[in-house]
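Hi R.,

Here's the chain you asked about this morning:
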Amino acid sequence: MNGSAVLKIRVSKTGNNTYLSQVIQLVIEAENTKSKAQGYADITAKWLFYVAVVSGNIILAYWATTGDFEFALERMVTVLIIACPHALGLAGPLELQDLLPSQRKKDD
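And the predicted structure, written out as tokens:
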């Protein structure tokens, strides 16, 4: 502990010129930009999501006609989970993210 002596501190940068501020700015810029590969991955995940949902609904309709709805529902969920779990996990929220800002703009 320095109880009696003078402590001299030299500040070389402040505010937006600090290293931490520059790192934060780079992270913000990186979050706001998308690479072409990320765009292609988003499009692919979106279409895989649609294919998985349509396939699941077709399976549900087919097996529901056999009379056992619980069995049909079980098969639909199985198809959805096996067909594309990453698309269901990624594309669903991405689609909601795309829809919500457009809804806010319409309300304004």
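The radius of gyration is 26 Å.

Let me know if you need anything else.
M.
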